[in-house]
Design goal:
This protein has 77 residues and is mainly beta. It has one domain. Helices cover 10% and strands 44% of the residues. The protein contains 2 helices and 5 strands. It is globular, with a radius of gyration of 14 Å.
């Protein structure tokens, strides 16, 4: 393997959750971690990323909405 592949650093870019109390179809909440900006949408698409999903990984603002499972989207630095 080349050194460049070994040195790839992934940075948390987005956190996604489903919020059933929002009006359809925009029930997907996307938090842009880098810009500290949150928005609601019906679709999120990104290429060249790494997605991590784990039960119980929600933080305070997400727990307040009842979220227990968050998709974390990482991008190459």
């Amino acid at each position: 393997m080349s050194n460049q592949i070994l040195k790839t650093k992934w940075v948390l870019a987005y956190r996604l959750r489903y919020k059933k109390t929002l009006k359809a179809p925009n029930r997907l909440v996307v938090w842009d971690v880098r810009e500290n900006y949150e928005y609601e949408t019906d679709k999120f698409e990104l290429v060249n990323c790494k997605i991590v999903m784990a039960y119980g990984n929600s933080i305070k603002q997400e727990k307040a909405c009842g979220a227990k499972l968050i998709l974390e989207v990482y991008m190459k630095e």
